Every structure is written in structure tokens, then in C-alpha cells.
Amino acid sequence: MANLVTSLCCVVLAAVVVAYAQRRSQLVARNQYERMGSDVTMQCGSLDNDASVSWKVNGTDVKAQHRLEGPRLILTQVNLGHNGLYSCFQNPHGERRDTIILHIGIPPREPTVTCRSNTYPKGFYCSWHQLYSTYIPTTFEVDVQHNQRSLEVQKDSVHKNRCHVRFPEVFSSFPYKVNVTAVNALGKASTTITFEESTIVKPDPPERVTATPIRFNPRRLEVSWHSPATWPDIDNFPLKYFLRYRPLIRDQWQHVELSDSTSHTITDAYAGKEYIIQVAAKDTEIGTWSDWSVAVHATPWIEDPLPIASTTEDSSTLLTETKTSPIPSSNAPQKAEPPVGRAAKLLTFFSPLLLGMLLLLM
Ligand SMILES: *[C@@H]1O[C@H](CO)[C@@H](O)[C@H](O)[C@H]1NC(C)=O
Ligand SMILES: *[C@@H]1O[C@H](CO)[C@@H](O)[C@H](O)[C@H]1NC(C)=O
Q1: pLDDT at res. 333
Q2: Which ligand is nearest the CA of 101, by number?
Q3: Gap between the Cα atoms of 128 and 115, Å rounded
Q4: DSSP per residue over 121-185, as a string?
Q5: What is the pLDDT of residues 326-344, one digit of tens each?
Q6: What is the pLDDT of residue 355?
Q7: pLDDT score of 350 more than 70
Q8: Closest to 180 (Cα-Cα) out of 108, 233, 117, 243
């Protein structure tokens, strides 16, 4: 008895749910995806062929070129301008029978795929992108094969079009095969790349590069840096470094290749010139050079420049004499300069005042 009541209850409930769902389906908008340039048919609910309906888009009449065939609206050669919320109403009472969100787009094309290991020997990552927009949501499926088995693929938490794969073994001679498939409502397209472990190893650039002048050494710069933090095992997989530097005023770089040291002293800098310095890293055995690090600027040590301002004229000249030149006579013309300069500065400072006073007098 209880069982019968329960099942009756269920039947009634199911009927209510179905009726509700039917009613809702007439009110809740559904998506329709169509290819750009095609002719599009929208069907008003499940109305019969002889039903008469009228259509609205975004709440107004359909202005784009179209045909009406019973419960169907046919748009020709659709483009993005046809996107919109379409509703149909059954004549003669005008009850709404269906709501369709029309999305115009294009099927995906083969994505561009690149893979790289900046965490050798832990793993590698692959990224992909589409050269053309599809205008509609497109997702990607990634399949990685190695030695006839599928490897686990982990989505990147930050980069949308990136995934990570662990190397199942190091120094493997089997190639890796990565297949990325772009999928949307209008179609799919895949790209497959095949590579060997060693060809994708590329560390990140060295970090925290600094260049500092060395006291009393007008031609030296001490450059130091840290290995990239992403490189997981610097002891067993050491990196070597490549340093390049040039004075800002020149185009040509000078290069130094270093084993696993993380500092270098430039000894042939031009005195007084500002330098630009960058470092790159490479696995000592395999792989390719990293990109260049962030550029740092530094100027070798220069003797303290002339003091510009001082309290008295006497001390200023005194300082000038002792610092710049051991020959006092050559200094003679300079002696007169600072006071003149100061007088000129005073004049410019007071000139608006003077002008004002002059104006008042007139
Ligand atoms: C309908 O509205 C959407 C959103 O405002 C707009 O992008 C679209 O072009 C409109 N469609 C038509 C056919 O006016
Ligand atoms: C790539 O993956 C897609 C989807 O799983 C599949 O249809 C296609 O055949 C695969 N391509 C290759 C070359 O394995």
C-alpha cells in the first residue's frame, strides 16, 4: 500500500516536472550556433508547418533580410550583426512559443601549439592559441602520448591555453606526441606536434641581475645574478650563462660565455659610460638558450664630480682645485665661473620680482 502511494506520488511529481519543463522551455532562451555567411533557419518551438507566427529580435521587428515559412524564420547570409535574442509568437493571440539566442561564428582552425620545458627534468608545458577568432566559445582537448601510452595532462591554473605534463622518465629516446583539438559548436580541428625531450628544454632567463661599479675602478663592473627559480635541480642539471653588455651609445654587444658561475666582472668598460647588461642561461648538456634577462643599467665608478654648491666662494674654489686638476694654472678660468653662475641664478630668481618692481615704478 505504502509502495503504491509512493509510486503514485512519483508519477504525479514526474508529470508536474515534465509540464513545468515544457512550459519553461518555451520561456527559457536556448542557444543556436550558426556559421557566418550561411542561411539560417530558426524553428519556433515544435509548432506545425501550418502554424502562423511572428518574430522579434531584441524586442523589435526583424529588419534583416529574411523569409517566413510557417513557424520558421529564415535569415540569409548571416553575419555578426544577426546575433541577438529572437522570440516567436503564435498568431492570432500572440503567445510566446520560443526564444532563441542566435550566435554567429566560425568553426575552429588548427591551433598553433608549442611545448617547452623550463623545469627540466621535472616536466614540460604546452601552450596553444588560435590565429583567428571564432566569435563563439571554443574549448581545447589535449592528448599527450609517449611510448604508446597517454600521459596525464594538468591544466595551468593561470594561463587559460596552457597545460603541464610530467616527464615519465629522463633521457628518454621515445618522442612525445601532443595533439591539441579545438572544439566549438560549429566544428573541430586538431594540431599534432612530435618532439624529442631535448629539443624543448629551454630554461627561464636568470633572475635578479645586478651590475655595480667597483670603487676606484673606472673600467670595471661587477655583474651578478641568480639561476631561474623555475629550474628545479641546479646541482644535478647545472646551467651555464651567457653575458652581453654594451655602452648605451653603441649598438654592438660584447659577449662572455661562462660555465656555472653566477657572477662576472667586466674589465673593459669605457670609463664614465652607462652600460646595459643582460644574461641568458642554458642547460650544460642539452637544450637551448633562455631568453635574455631583464636589462640592467650601470655606469663604472667615476671620480666624485665637481661640487656644485657650497657655502662660501673660497671653499668652493679650494675644492675645485684639489679635486679636478693637479695643475692650478689650468684651473684659473674655472675659478671665476661658479660665482658668475650663482649670480646668474640669483638674477633669474629675482627677475620676476625686479620686473614687478619696475612695473610698479612706471
Ligand atoms: C541584439 O542585441 C545585441 C546585444 O545588445 C546586439 O549585439 C545585436 O547586434 C542585436 N541584434 C540585432 C539584430 O539588432
Ligand atoms: C587528435 O585528437 C582528436 C580528438 O581526440 C582526434 O580526432 C584526432 O584523430 C587526433 N589526431 C591525431 C593525429 O592523433
Answers
A1: 34
A2: 1
A3: 9
A4: TTEEEEEEE-SS--SS-EEEEEEEEETTEEEP-EE-SS-TTEEEEE-SSSS--SPEEEEEEEEET
A5: 333 333 333 333 333 333 3
A6: 45
A7: no
A8: 108
Q: Which ligand is nearest to the CA of 81?
A: 1
6 assigned to some structural domain: no
**Same structural domain, 192 and 211:** no
| 284 three-state secondary structure | coil
Q: Any idea what DSSP says for residue 201?
A: B
Q: Is 58 in the pocket of ligand 1 (CB under 6 A)?
A: yes
Q: Whose CA is nearest to atom 9 of ligand 2?
A: 190
Provide the pLDDT confidence category of residue 349 given band limits of 50, 70 and 90: very low
Nearest residue CA, atom 5 of ligand 2? 181
The CA 23 to ligand 2 mean position distance, Å, reads 41
Which helix (DSSP H) or strand (DSSP E) does residue 355 occupy?
A: helix 328-361
Kindly report the pTM of this predicted structure: 0.71
> Are the CB atoms for 138 and 130 separated by under 8 Å?
yes
The DSSP secondary-structure symbol of 98 reads: E
Q: Which residues form the domain of 134?
A: 112-200
pLDDT band at 164 (very low <50, low <70, confident <90, very high): very high
119 and 177 share a domain?
yes
C-alpha distance from residue 178 to each of 133, 160, 168, 190 (Å): 23, 17, 14, 10
Nearest to 281 by CA among 85, 95, 118, 129: 118
Count of the separate structural domains present in the chain: 3
List all residues 6 or more positions away from 43 whose beta carbon is below 8 Å from its beta carbon.
71, 72, 98
Domain C-terminal end among 68, 85, 105: 105
pLDDT in the model for residue 311 = 46
Confidence of residue 11 (pLDDT cuts 50, 70, 90): low
For residue 187, the ligand closest to its alpha carbon is: 2
CATH number at residue 169: 2.60.40.10
Among 178, 179, 193, name the best residue to mutate to test ligand 2's pocket (greatest count of ligand atoms within 8 A of Cβ).
179
Cell 517566413, located at residue: 68
Could you tell me the pLDDT band of residue 303, with boundaries at 50, 70 and 90?
A: confident
pLDDT at 133 over 80: yes
Read off the pLDDT of each residue in 279-308 and give the average, rounded to a whole number: 88
